Amino acid sequence: MELLKDKILEQGRIIGNDILKVDSFLNHQLDIYILNEIGKEFKKRFRGYKIDKIITAEVSGIAIAAIAAQYFNVPVVFARKSQSKNLDMETYEGEVFSYTKDKLYKIRISKRYLNSGENVLIIDDFLANGQAILGLKQIVDQAKANLVGVGIVIEKGFQEGGKILREAGINIESLVIVDSMSKGQIIFR
Amino acid sequence: MELLKDKILEQGRIIGNDILKVDSFLNHQLDIYILNEIGKEFKKRFRGYKIDKIITAEVSGIAIAAIAAQYFNVPVVFARKSQSKNLDMETYEGEVFSYTKDKLYKIRISKRYLNSGENVLIIDDFLANGQAILGLKQIVDQAKANLVGVGIVIEKGFQEGGKILREAGINIESLVIVDSMSKGQIIFR
């Protein structure tokens, strides 16, 4: 997706060797024009599939999923990281290991909002080690829903998540894949 | 907003005397049609005002603000609750007291994404005690931006937030105000 590559080259900031900050448009400030273009592209990549629901994990996936859902005409459910008064007691739970925080946390979706047999598309901002997606997949599996695919805005091709998920047979569409960010230069696949 | 009242009456669940769960369409599962109607209504309520940016706080405000921003044609910035690798070190900070968790937490917006003189609209899902809005207002004030108004989807009129904010001279537009939920019955103002 050329528009997205241009935006990343123009506004992305590389911190160290593996952090790509795109907080000017994707996960702190939100550029609503580019989010709509991302949503249209996801629709294009998953055309021909029957999709009943989009799921994502809080926080950074929410806006991307909500805007994209307009092109699929389906509801979104975002998995919550904390028990909250807004969440039912009866939930499906996935486990996510955070390498940055070196701890395991849970993500949850109320059993009311994910049903057996539903065709689910997962959307998220980044794919790095794949942990968040695996946690969401656990939730989809517990609900006996069908995981149709995973739409990722930016895949870090130099981390192992994409490989793990593809080898597990998951249908992944990454709008851009960054193969390297060494010496401050972004190389796309 | 009659459509929203109908949706609340149809799908809202009252827990105890003061919790109104609308997680079927507003803050866990997201009904994208109603979010668009909410966005249009906010645009109508704030027509005639110059608005440069919409801000909200994670988590529940994000989807509402992102969808609404399409009608204002402005970017969104959502304040983050935790220090994250996606957040700059240089931030404006607001303090929010959580009555449910009985503790004070901070919300932060990077100084890059809120500028002196910008005209800011705050959007959030609920207005109850007003703490989250006051925390966001602290951030707007620190940035020397102008708070044009606050758009709220559901105000709990039986809690003190609306009164505190209006007495502080803040321009609040609540799409619906719930005056009472006793005995399982929702009374709108």
Description:
The structure is a homodimer of 189-residue chains. Chain A has helices spanning 2-11, 32-45, 61-72, 131-142, 161-167; strands at residues 13-15, 19-21, 29-30, 53-57, 76-79, 91-98, 103-110, 119-127, 146-156, 172-180, 187-188. With 189 residues, the first copy, chain A, is α/β, with parallel strands linked by helices. Chain A has one domain: Rossmann fold, CATH 3.40.50. In chain A, the strands form 3 sheets. Chain A has a 6-stranded mixed beta sheet with strand order 5-4-8-9-10-11. In chain A, helix 2 (32-45) crosses helix 3 (61-72). Strand 5 of chain A pairs antiparallel with strand 3 (29-30) of chain B.
Structural class computed from helices and strand pairing of chain A: alpha/beta
CATH class of chain A: Alpha Beta
Rg of chain A from C-alpha positions?
16 Å
Total beta strands of chain A: 11
CATH architecture of chain A: 3-Layer(aba) Sandwich
State the order of secondary-structure elements of chain A, H for helix, E for strand. HEEEHEHEEEEHEHEE
Tally of domains of chain A? 1
Number of helices of chain A: 5
Most extensive contact = A-B, 39 and 39 residues
